[in-house]
Specification:
Low-confidence stretches: 134-138
Radius of gyration: 16 Å
Shape: elongated
Structural class: mainly alpha
Largest sheet: none
Number of helices: 4
Strand content: under 5%
């Protein structure tokens, strides 16, 4: 069994910082400055962030060089499942816990919580599902 915390984990975290800055920047900009709704803002985060994540993790973190439509499909499935779980849970939870706050505050807290949940789920999904191939030496 592979170790869960190792050199790959550190690379994933570095890529995650970049990816989070890009994706969350898009999400919070759209929601707070452009007036775009919660659903579209969070979806835009993961469309943009997922493209960045795919290429950085494929070539840098997991050192996968082969071209594989199965890998792309696994990556897309992983992103969709992680998004559905994280944002499906985050918004109702934020609305329950922070019921007395404005919709904007609750939505921003839900987006933040959803990002955190997504990161954890996505790490395991990418490492053990999307990029599970052998690749090069990490």
């Amino acid at each position: 069994m592979k170790k869960i915390v190792d050199k790959i984990t550190l690379k994933f975290l570095l890529v995650g910082i970049i990816n989070t800055l890009v994706g969350n920047g898009v999400m919070f900009l759209l929601y707070n400055l452009c007036g775009v709704g919660y659903g579209i803002s969070t979806a835009a985060n993961y469309v943009v962030g997922s493209v960045v994540s795919y290429f950085l993790n494929k070539y840098y973190t997991f050192r996968q060089t082969q071209k594989s439509i199965k890998e792309v499909i696994r990556f897309i499935i992983n992103i969709v499942v992680c998004y559905a779980i994280a944002y499906g849970a985050a918004k109702p939870l934020a609305y329950l816990v922070f019921g007395g706050f404005s919709q904007s505050v609750k939505d921003n807290l839900a987006m933040l919580a959803g990002s955190g949940m997504f990161i954890v789920l996505n790490y395991f999904g990418q490492r053990f599902f999307a990029f599970k191939g052998e690749g090069k030496e990490q």
